[in-house]
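My main concern about presentation is that the manuscript never shows what a single data entry looks like. For the editor and my fellow referees, an illustration may be useful. For illustration, here is how one protein appears when written out as sequence plus structure tokens:

***
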Amino acid sequence: MTANAGAKPVRKGKPQKSQNASRTLKRKREQEDLSKLKEAIANLDPKDPKIANFTDLPLCQATASGLRASHFEVLTDVQRTAIPLAIKGNDILGAAKTGSGKTLAFLVPVLEKLYRERWTEYDGLGALIISPTRELAMQIFEVLRKIGRNHVFSAGLVIGGKSLKEEAERIGRMNILVCTPGRMLQHLDQTAGFDVDNLQILVLDEADRIMDMGFQSAVDALVEHLPKTRQTLLFSATQSKRVSDLARLSLKDPEFVSVHEKESAATPTNLDQIYTVTPLAQKLDTLWGFLRSNLKSKMVVFLSSGKQVRFIYESFRRMQPGIPLLHLHGRQKQIARTEITRRFKSAPTACLFATDVVARGVDFPAVDWVIQVDCPEDAETYIHRVGRTARYDRKGRAVLFLDPSEEEGFVKRLEHKKVPIKRVNVKEDKKQSIANELQNLCFQNPDVKYLAQKAFVSYTKSIHLQKDKEVFRFQELDLDAFAASMGLPGAPQIKMTKGEDVKRLKNMPRQGMSSGSEEEGEGDEEGVVVIKAKKGEVRTKYQKMAERQNQDVLSSHYRKLVGGDDDEDEDDEEDFLSVKRVLDDEDLEGAGGGAQAEPKVVKIGKSELVIDSKRREKLLKSKKKMLKYMDGPTKLVFDDEGNAHQLYELQGEEEFRAEGPAEKLREKFVETEAGKVKEADVEDKEAAKLRRREKRERAKQREREEMEALTRDAAGAKLDVNDEEEDPLALLKSLPIAGGGSGSSDGEDEPPKKKAKKWFQDDSEDEREAERQRKKEKKEKKGKVIEMDHEPDTLQDYEALAAGLLED
């Protein structure tokens, strides 16, 4: 600290003492607040009916202020039940409706747990929050940033699609991590120095999805890295109570929090749920008519696979229904997924085609409709999908498209889960067939046709692999009509193999894998299910045109999918156009008399190479392979005199001594090099002198060009200043200089220009007096002399002279 002049000196010890005292007092207050908080938590009754707001809970000041700033005041049912139990240190197994506020139910206990433990950045990872999808993890992280804005904890988001190296550099300094299972397991296995031994609390959002078969191995491996002594919170819209799941996660006497079990339905009461029976071949028509009837709505359309999402998005985008379209699936880049999510959240009206990647937990504001074109795999998935609307006491509507074969079985599943749903019929005037438009798109755009084929295969496989055979009856689906509704001229052929036979069949010849049967479900190999479209006896003209349309990279793919063998006549016609190998002279000689040609012998360096096959002939064309037959390096370098030398030359010791003493050789070398340097110096000076001369010439040339431009009249014709010789400076030389003469070479003054005649005469005395005064002033001005140091030569001299004349 620097004191001002005249100020009294300040003792150095006094500020330090006051700072220490203030720190001590601050720590003492924090300890008192912490002890009061722990005492309030110990006296808290989790089942107290008076708890209705966040202010009724024993929370630290940082968490309370963050909730207040984020406008969270009233507790929801799941929050009122779960938060008191969680802050008392109990393990939680919670189930609540979608949109009921489960995120705050575990984020508030996480912040309170680390605050009471006085967690710092030096203590490492204290809380781990696992989410099944990237979108849900990003949403949790944003809520954590809002309510934890006043805490000093460091938090990070660890999901796929970003740089693993950048995450590894920062992950060791994080106190709270929000992650997906696969990415977190990757860091636990590969990131050196990443320590999770001090973990205090583990949170699994959408726990039923995380613990199912898709994430089972990853979760089991991840839990192995975590300490056993920790608090665990599990939340989902549909919860599992299986003892095996609880044992895997090391839950100790968990508290079951199930809000909707006491109510009549597992879905919100403000959600209007309907379904309509639509044959598979008419689902796209029904979807198109629905979009055209709800152009002012915001909706999410769920499909069973990403390939279907891409096909419907691309085809509908070209047909322009009149509403903004977006699509989201798991195969997109993370940047694109984030941008699409942001755009859909901010859009007032839009339609988002999506897979189940956004079916769980993602909060899309103000969604009016949830449309499920494809039947979900189970009732739990249905509950999560419809949870994207009717969130936080807002009304919403959901519609489900069911094939006649799916209606009976799936409606029973929903009734068992206490989901109120009623059947409706589509109005006849709202139905609109788009099969012709889709067929036209596939005919004109090979990329749309390719997407349609992939979507057909993807949907068919998903139905065949469903476990609930009572709902998904594969044999009752009309696949030919479904392919025609997508604009395809024929149903692609699909081969499905069981898991154990995949590797064996992969290595088999193609002829052994193909089925010769024309009927569905038959095949040559055991464990192979061949689904082959029924072929009509007559192929129309337009079907043949569609097959010949894609003569590009997609044509072979389409022929494999359709599986229709071309007629023998067409194969013969194509064969005569195929290019055969042209026989050279050697082939003709070898085949002429039946005698075998003698092998050639090629001499390469000191070795000889016998050319007795086509392989050896190709060898001669490869420089890299011919190096091993060479005797050594054959590359030459040329000195200044033009003499050739080998690339590497070593002088013998005797030759070196014969040239003389080393000191004299060094002096000779230095003298030679010094002479070369002097010669190069002279050349450089001459080159510099030449460059300066060229620069002056260019400057003079520019001056001449500028003067030539000045001497042109308005019409562009050059003024005749000097008849004998064109001089760009002649105009300025004609100006008067010192001595009263002009700058011309002949020294004669130009005659004054005649005054223009007037069309009238002034006879007044005042006018005549004014005219005499003007003539007098002109005569005085004409006699003025401007002195200069030297004769004007350059453009700058004449500009200075002209400026002096104008100034007067």
